[in-house]
Design goal:
flat, three-stranded parallel β-sheet, 15% strand, alpha/beta, 258 residues
Length: 258
C-alpha cells in the first residue's frame, strides 16, 4: 500500500499514472482471522504475504508505528477500525433500492438510448450517474460531443487511457453544458417518472476553461481566484496537483478549492 498524502502522487511503483481513480491506497490490511493492522507512517510501504507462516512489512523509515486490532471476524475487525478512524456517512436511501446504479456519459441522446436498452432488457435501474454533464474536451481542448457507453471515458486522443464516470475529458467547471445535454430538464423529468434518481460527477478540483465556454455561464475557476478560495502553497501561489481522473497529467491551471 502507499501511505502518502494522496495529493500529487503518480508515476512510481506504488501509483500508476494510468490509474484513473480518485482514491489512494492506505497501509492497512485485515486478515481472515479478524486481525487488523493499520500503519501510521506515511512512507511508501510494501506488504508481503507470500509466506504462509508469516507476513513482512518493509518501509524506508527508522520507526514503524501502527495499530493492531483483534476481532472475531473480518466485519468485526473493520467495525473496530472504523470506530477509531471514522466512518463515512450512510449512502442515500435511493442507492439501496432494487436496481443498478448505471454510470453514463455521452450527452442526452446517448443517455436516453442506453436507458431504453436497459428497460427493454428488463433491467431495473435505481439511479443514473452522469459523468460528463459539464461538457467534454476535444484533443484541441475545445468542445466535443463524442459519445461513449456505460462507464466508459470519451475515447478521444487525449483520453484513450481513461475511463469511468469522471475523467480529464470532462471540464472541471461544474456548470451544466447545455450544448452537450440539450433538453436537460426533459431528460430529468423522464427519469424521475420512472423513479430513477440522478447523480452528477464532482471533484474538489477546478480548472480554467476556454474563453468561448465562459460566455453566458458561471466560470468557477475565475470566481475561486477572485474570492481567494484556493489552497495556497507557502509562497502564496495557487497549488496545483493531479486529480484521480487525470493522474499524472496535472496542469498549472488545475487547482484544489478549499
Amino acid at each position: 500500500g502507499y501511505g502518502g498524502s494522496g495529493f500529487g502522487s503518480g508515476g512510481n511503483q506504488y501509483y500508476s499514472p494510468r490509474n484513473t481513480s480518485n482514491s489512494t491506497t492506505i497501509p492497512h490490511f485485515v486478515s481472515s482471522a479478524g486481525v487488523s493492522l493499520h500503519l501510521h507512517t506515511v512512507e511508501p510501504t510494501v506488504f508481503d504475504f507470500a509466506n504462509r507462516d508469516y507476513y513482512s512489512i518493509r518501509t524506508p523509515c527508522s520507526v514503524l508505528a501502527g495499530t493492531f486490532l483483534s476481532g472475531n471476524s473480518i466485519l468485526h475487525a473493520l467495525e473496530l477500525h472504523t470506530g477509531l478512524k471514522g466512518r463515512t456517512r450512510p449512502l442515500p436511501k435511493w442507492t439501496q433500492r432494487n436496481g443498478i446504479l448505471a454510470g453514463m456519459r455521452g450527452g442526452t441522446d446517448e443517455i436516453r438510448s442506453v436507458c431504453k436498452n436497459l428497460f427493454e432488457h428488463g433491467c431495473s435501474v435505481a439511479g443514473v450517474l452522469i459523468g460528463d454533464w459539464t461538457g467534454v474536451k476535444s484533443s484541441a481542448s475545445g468542445y466535443s460531443g463524442s459519445a461513449s457507453s456505460i462507464g466508459g471515458g470519451a475515447n478521444n486522443s487525449n483520453n484513450s487511457a481513461h475511463s469511468g464516470l469522471g475523467s480529464n475529458s470532462s471540464w472541471y467547471n461544474y456548470v451544466l453544458e447545455r450544448e452537450h445535454y440539450t433538453g436537460w430538464q426533459s431528460l430529468m423529468d423522464s427519469l424521475e417518472r420512472r423513479g430513477i434518481s440522478v447523480g452528477l460527477y464532482l471533484s474538489p478540483y477546478l480548472e480554467e476553461i476556454p474563453m468561448h465556454l465562459r460566455s453566458g455561464r458561471r466560470y468557477l475557476f475565475g470566481e475561486a481566484t477572485a474570492g481567494d478560495y484556493f489552497v495556497k502553497r507557502r509562497v502564496g501561489e495557487v497549488g496545483s496537483g493531479s486529480t484521480g481522473a487525470a493522474a499524472g497529467h496535472a496542469k498549472k491551471s488545475e487547482a484544489m478549492a478549499d
